[in-house]
Amino acid sequence: VVSKAPADWESWNNLGNARRGAGDAEGALNALRRAADLTPNSAPVRLNLATALEFAGKFAEAEKEYRRVAADFPAEAHPMRELFAMLKTQYRDDEALEAIEEAVRRAPTDIELILGLASHRLTRQRHAGAEEAYRRVLALDPKNTLAWLGIATVMDQTNRTHELEALAGEAEEANIEAAGLSFVRAFGHRRAKQRLLVGEV
Fold it and tell me: What's the mean pLDDT in 168-188?
């Protein structure tokens, strides 16, 4: 198609994605660069180019393109989401945190993104920030099991053991799934058992 219609950016974009799917990294880049040249105002095409750069192992170029797309399309969360994922694989955790925080700022009701933010904060031992994000999820989805478990983890790691029983009661009132409720309760039971053993000693 592109040989007959060399200005058809959609076909160049499709060709690039197809080549990437076939494992042809350089071929994908050539096609997607052509598509992006033809339609520089298309966020999806530019994002496809950035992900193709990452796929090809051109990480510095990919990062620059993710950031350019984010700057050119300030309402789009996807470039920062993808940048977060790439930086995380490179163990650039502080920069990854900045990226996902910006992604959430752009998409404040995206539960998957907020959970990713909460989890990343938790791994960085930013407990207050992690709990804030998990509670933001619950404001959007009161039955979200991952958010309840995340809060329980925060309380467990910060030795707020006296709050775990109350948290389990709140989770039960929210009518979360049985398996999730059992896990939340388990945090409290484990801590209670530890206190009992210490008392026996």
Answer: 92
